[in-house]
Amino acid sequence: MIMSSGFCSARNWLGFVFLLLTICSLLSPAAAVKRENFKTCDQSGFCKRNRAYADTVAASSSWTSPYRLERGTIKFGDGILTGAVYKKLSGSEENIKLPLTITFYESGTARVSIDEEKRQKGQIELRHDSKARKERYNEAEKWAIVGGTSLSTGAAINKESAKGTTLVVYGPGSKFEAIITHNPFGIEFKRDGETQIKFNDRGLLNVEHWRRKVDKPPVESSTSSSEDSSDGGKASETPAAAEADKDAGEDESTWWEESFGGNTDGKARGPEAMALDIDFPGYEHVYGIAEHAGPLSLKETRGGQDKYSDPYRLYNSDVFEYEMDSPMTLYGAIPFMQAQKKDSTVGVFWLNAAETWIDITKATSIVNPLSLGVLGKTTTQTHWISEAGLLDVFVFLGPTPQDVIGAYADLTGYTALPQQFAIAYHQCRWNYVTDTDVRDVDRKFDKHHIPYDVIWLDIEYTDGKKYFTWDPLTFGDPAGMLKQLDEHGRKLVAIIDPHIKNEGGYNVVDEMKSKDLAVKNKDGSIYEGWCWPGSSHWVDCFSPAARKWWASLFQYAKFKGSSTNLHIWNDMNEPSVFNGPETTMPKDNLHYGNWEHRDVHNIYGHSLINATYEGLLARDKAEEKRNVRPFILTRSFYSGSQRYAAMWTGDNLAEWSHLEASIPMTLSMGISGYPFAGADVGGFFGNPDKELLTRWYQAGIFYPFFRAHAHIDTRRREPYLAGEPYTEIIAKAIRLRYSLLPAWYTAFHEASVTGAPIIRPNYYVFPGDEKGFAIDDQLYVGNTGLLAKPVTKADTKHATIYLADKEKYYDYFDFWTYEGPGEVHLNAPLDTIPLLMQGGHIIPRRDRPRRSSGLMKFDPFTLVIVLGHAGDAEGTLYLDDGESFDYNEGGFLHRKFSYRSATASLTSEDLGSPGKKTKEYLKQMERVRVEKIIVVGAPAAWKNLKEVGITEEESNGQSAAGAVRNAPLEFHAPVEGRAAFAVVRNPAVRIGAGWKINFA
Ligand code: NOJ
């Protein structure tokens, strides 16, 4: 199996045993994640120290946090409060000064930042010969924050603050309060007079201040039970901490260096972690802090049974074959958390790019001692611990999930509206081996009438893993291949990774070196590590010059053989380094500006896709005068990456448990402001049996990013290979996705302007229904009322769906009627997808099967009117050319459809705001009509109705002329639990125009 892989073939044999072992172990499907490659909290010095700090605090009955806000330093003006927090060192009179800034934004978001006063000359020295910067990393915001920072004009200090506190009133309608306690320092955030969030209430604020490293006699290390705890021994060889007395009881063994897996991390600045407890009183559920493979409602991380033993970790890593139900880190980091209780959502965004751990515990109060154990409110307690950087936290006070997610998106940016093809079906594997292979797969999809839009090339297309090249033997005719795809309206995505092969004569590496654009070792020399090409260097996109250079590589003249229908996949950008600590880069590596890798680790991948995005934008603008939206897929991400790329959940396994986990994982991305997400359909490692593959497609059509992918050692599994009945069932599922593309595109548009998730969990849709707060195996598609419950277990014949509201829900396919609230049971044999339509919605679709979505551009629409108890329904449709930025100039249509039972009429109104390109676009769409209207739950009174009356506005946009034409209506009476429905054939109203259809 090993030798079958491309890399391990003789051609690539580098004679380097380490590389062979590492890479072949990555290539060969093994049973499980290599846990031992990744640190536990106990093996991560700063995490261990801060957990110990929390334990000490919890064990003490007289603990007082040593942080105090000096009253006399407080200043307030223009929405900003500043002051000095002092940390008192134990056993000493000395205080460390920590500048505090609390910013109140017009949006109602508050931001609390704590820095450390710049070191005075001689106050500390850096360890080693490191050229690292001396201050705390303060540039995360440059990468993550793009808006939402207008200062509040209304925020004001309330003069009647209680003694020892400062009270700031702020937010919409002045309903929010920040009560800042001076000594010990803490903040309580209230909404409508009720406490929502507390900072440092438990006293876990811990700013590991800089100190001088002073030799002292060796001390016994108490750190780490790991095999590497010998690093503590190392630290004690050149041991430290003249200031130990001031920090009595602290474990210093990992202050100055720390080893793991044979790598030693020299900490040039010594200990500098930032930690804080953030509590949500009355909130039982917390969500977010993606990416993890576990339930949507986050689990407790301390306290034994059914709880994790480690905190949730955010340290972007190449964790292939990752573990299910685990707080282990994965490929990306979004340090944004929401808390949910009945009818209230609040949240925090911890803006820090360094390794971060988050402990979650829940405390439930006893109502009163006489109530014999009757439980009261639950408080979710969280403890955030970052290795370096600032303490910089944004606070969102809701009250709805959308308020919180919207405020977060306002800051970090909205999901880029993708090209239409990007939300259709993607066919990938590692690898399509030749250009003829690609053409052949392309033809076979057509032969089997299975739509697809994009075929992907993994690393083997390159000439010896040199990105921006093609293997001359296997991909001798990229232009011909791309042309064939283009003729079918299809695209190609090619992989480009950030590791650049270290081989003389390869122009990319030569340029990168000569221009000095690569990541460096701590001494300033170029960093070299191992990845797919063998010895490699890594582009440092933190450097503006490197970004510009990287962007230039995508020009057609430079990436020879590429063309307008080629798009990009940035993989391995955590970055993955096969021989690095925890499969990534040493933390003491240096980036542009001499920031250490530890400072910026979680935004490395984000910096790369930013440059790729700029490259693709420029490529098309400059060379083709095209104004098209780039498509990029990224594995690593940070808050803000939604502005540039889709993401996927990395190297999963072809196992039912991974299919199951993909739903909460994708939902979690959606509520984390990064909704363009999906998992490898079929499972990356291993060979799914046909039932699993089929069910995975049926689930995959509900991922916003819908791509099948497979490891190089797996058997081919394009849908047409499955054989009957599987192929037809899979094809039907894919066709369903295509038919619903208008609804999906509308949901993407909404995400791109409001930050709303594309697939939505119950708590988001029904924030007042506590029963739904932990549900994460069913999903709503945008605002369409479509409710899916993908089957994720073998041998399933039935599905149970939870309905939160007192409403009618209809089976999508046969209109079987269900009634909420409560659980309903559906038949779900292999050829059936459990999918319901909630009463009250109008769903736009296109029902003509095509080879690719591009070919559907001028297809007519079907509108499905789903009548609920009230008898009314509404829906929207957003449409544009699906590829350019013309929508920014009005080149789109946005309609609202409403059915009103009182008037028995269906109307289409304009939601758009006209711009320079509106007319031109509407002209293009002039011939696109509604070909069918289906009314589900049609009133019994329609049984004698034979036609509907239609009035439509003039094509010049003038209001309806009044001329009425008719279209036939067929009424279908209810049968056996199925709803009555009516079909209006060919009403022929224009999709982009205003009209009214009378059903009476
Ligand atoms: C790791 C990615 O997660 C996987 O999808 C890809 O196939 C391999 N790298 C090879 O490029």
Describe the structure.
The protein is of the alpha+beta class and 1000 residues long. Strands 6, 7, 8, 9, 10, 11, 14, 16, 19 and 20 form a ten-stranded antiparallel β-sheet that branches. A ten-stranded mixed β-sheet has the order 44-45-49-52-51-50-53-48-47-46. Strand 32, helix 12 and strand 33 form a beta-alpha-beta unit. Helix 6 packs parallel to helix 7. It starts with 16 loop residues before the first helix and ends with a strand. Bound molecules: 1-deoxynojirimycin. The site of 1-deoxynojirimycin (NOJ) has 11 residues, from loops. The site of 1-deoxynojirimycin has 11 residues, from loops.
Question: Mean pLDDT, rounded to whole units?
Answer: 92
Shape: globular
Low-pLDDT windows of residues: 1-30, 221-246
Derived from helix and strand composition plus strand pairing, the structural class reads: alpha+beta
Query: Any idea what the CATH architecture of the largest domain is?
Result: Alpha-Beta Barrel
User: Can you summarize the main beta sheet?
Assistant: 10 strands, antiparallel
Structurally, how many domains make up the residues?
3
Bound ligands: 1-deoxynojirimycin
Roughly what fraction of the amino acids lie in strands? 25-35%
The CATH topology of the largest domain is TIM Barrel
Contiguous helical run count: 17
Q: What is the name of the CATH class of the largest domain?
A: Alpha Beta
